[in-house]
Amino acid sequence: MSYSSGLQRQALYSIGLILFLFIMIINTVMGRLLKKGDDDKK
Fold first, then answer.
1. Any residues with CB less than 8 A from the CB of 9 and at least 6 apart, and which?
2. At a CB cut-off of 8 Å and minimum separation 6, what does 4 contact?
3. pLDDT at 38
4. Which of 17, 26, 35, 42 is the most exposed, fewest CB within 10 Å of its CB?
5. What is the pLDDT of residue 21?
6. What is the spatial distance between Cα 37 and Cα 42, in angstroms, rounded to a whole number?
7. What residues contact 20, with CB distance under 8 A and at least 6 apart?
8. Taking the CB of residue 8, how many other CB atoms lie within 10 A of it?
9. Mind listing the pLDDT tens digit for each residue in 1-42?
10. Burial class (CB in 10 A: 0-12, 13-18, 19+), 42
11. Which residues lie closer than 8 Å to 12 by C-beta, 6 or more apart?
């Protein structure tokens, strides 16, 4: 991060935040799908 400054640093933080949110959404959806699948087996 020391090589970036200004707009480039803001872009890196924004991309990191978007990736984090995307991963959290995927984890939530997959968790619900797997939990739903476990309920069907019982």
1. 1
2. 12
3. 76
4. 42
5. 98
6. 9
7. none
8. 11
9. 677 788 999 999 999 999 999 999 999 999 999 988 777 665
10. exposed
11. 1, 4
**Per-residue pLDDT, 4:** 78
Give 3's DSSP letter: T
In single-letter form, the type of residue at position 27 comes to N
Question: What predicted TM-score, i.e. pTM, was given to this entire model?
Answer: 0.72
Hey, what are 42's tokens?
């019982």
Taken in order 24, 29, 32, 33, the sign of the CA dihedral is negative
Q: Which residues of 10-41 are buried (b: 16+ CB within 10 A; e: fewer)?
A: eeeeeeeeeeeeeeeeeeeeeeeeeeeeeeee
